[in-house]
Amino acid sequence: MKKEALAQEYAHFAEEIQAAVARVLASGRYILASEVEAFEAEAAAYLGVRYAIGCNSGTDALLLSLLACEIGPGDEVITSPFSFFATAATISRVGATPVFADIDPRTFNLDPARVAELITSRTRAIIPVHLFGQAADMTEFRRLADEHGLLLIEDAAQAFAARWAGQPVGTFGDLAAFSFYPTKNLGACGDAGLVTTNHPELARRVRILRQQGVDGLRYHHELMGINSRLDELQAAILRVKLPHLADLNAKRHLVAAIYDAGLAAVAGVCPPYVHPQATHIYHQYTIRTPYRDELRRFLADCGVETDVYYPVLLPDQPAYRNARYPFRTGPLPEARRATREVLSLPISPYLPHDQAEMVAERIKTFLTTRNGAVPLVAPNGKQESALSVAKS
Ligand SMILES: Cc1ncc(COP(=O)(O)O)c(C=O)c1O
Q: For FRET with 261, which of 72, 82, 118, 203 sits at 20 to 30 Å CA-CA?
């Protein structure tokens, strides 16, 4: 969600959010107190998981999960090369080696068959990402993890309330990490994250690790932890939004359905494919087209802001040129192709439906005209994209 949509969401919940913020400020308790406890209980009940532990961000939720499993130097963790940087960076941060497997070109999610090919005696864990808000194939990942005695950690940062085979994501893995960065479908007004698990001992360890490894006794540090506390203000704001999440997600679905209908029969563009076992919460509505860059320029000329998630594969990031952060990859043709073809269209619960219709119509015009090599003129009169389209 862009800042306009975030402001709209705030306006929608302003009274409740202000009351929640005032309540926290007046309480004098700002870190890890009753709001956090209540949010953790409510989020756990919402997802149907035994333990939910609040922390400072989705990045820290991944880091705490890895630390709780004592994954470190000498260990390999297989994950997606087509994700946000934190998915791999946290693996490197604990001293382990990320191993990148290719994605399923239909869903953009990590492909279990490609993961299976990369498992070695050093593999400790698999981290699938529920990318763009669509659940990854948790049946296969659970089976693979069980068969090889591996830990399964879900990167659910983009997918709160998405489901696989009717079951919410964040309940399949040994641990799962959620992000409440403001642009997420359940967004705080600052950084916030959550770890979920059904294992009492892992839950205990995450709880301790988020507070410098302190277990009850002050200044007694049982584990080598970090400072990753969730603050009361963010928890109180998340508690306002959580009961409305189903409605907010349903509104995203309506926008997605307009795009789906508008793009269904258009040659040269592929609307998101949703696996029959998965639900998609449309954190992003991501199409693919071989004419991505031209289309993006054309839409920009029409005043439509789009985005590319992700233009660079994780192993190609400059940070991985540093020999201190080794990695391994399988062949990545699909992930690489995705970096060239994906385009995320505007989506939020508040996007007016006529705007979504207009965007789909513009894409259709662009692609039908491009394929017929007829010069296009953007509505603001600019011909630049039209000419480059006709020439290429
Ligand atoms: C797939 C994925 N993993 C992890 C993160 C990290 O979450 P945060 O920004 O809350 O640290 C994000 C955030 O964008 C994400 O998209």
A: 82
